[in-house]
Amino acid sequence: MELKPSSFRANLKLRLFRSYDLMSYRNDGEIYARECIFHDNEGNHILAVYQKEEIPVFGATLKEGKLYRISNPAVLSNNKPTIVSNKFKLSLGKRTTITEIVDDLFPKHVFNFKPFGEINALQNFEKAPMFDVIGALFVSDPAITKPINGKETLIMDISLEDLEGGKELLHFVGKICIRSYEICGKRSSATSHSYYSVLQGREI
């Protein structure tokens, strides 16, 4: 995708990969904005954000997995490169129009798999852009609830094994635990050699 900073005339075709609310922990978890992660037809990701007052407008339209034509977003510099590596991000506001479209040729899923050895070699995981992992389920534990920042939060751990016998622990936080346990909780070992791809996500 070709973007120009400070532009309001972009016309983009993007699929919504993930959306989540941004909450202020200093104000009893009040939602102040919502962030979205989109990808284009070449697998490039871009971050988009809209403020609390726009949630009733865009929140009813934007659904994960759907494809959209997004016109007239504000193009800004991305100051959170730890989520996506794109140097730009989008701000959705009153000038922005969003229309759901259908294109059977547009990819529904894009992956950026990273080997376990490369993950373990990361010097600072928190500054690494999103990536995906794939492996056989080795062990999974039921989700439990623990207080995080004063809020009761679901957490869950699973362990994946790659073809070389390397193991990687994945830590889930928030509502993703429910979806993960529906899949992983049905198996306690990798004896069936069923493989799962696990997309990296961040609960904010």
UniProtKB/TrEMBL annotation:
It comes from the Eukaryota. InterPro entries: NA-bd_OB-fold, RFA1B/D_OB_1st. It holds the Pfam family DUF223. Residues 2-100 form the Replication protein A 70 kDa DNA-binding subunit B/D first OB fold domain. PANTHER family: OS03G0429900 PROTEIN (PTHR47165). This is Replication protein A 70 kDa DNA-binding subunit B/D first OB fold domain-containing protein. It comes from Cuscuta campestris.
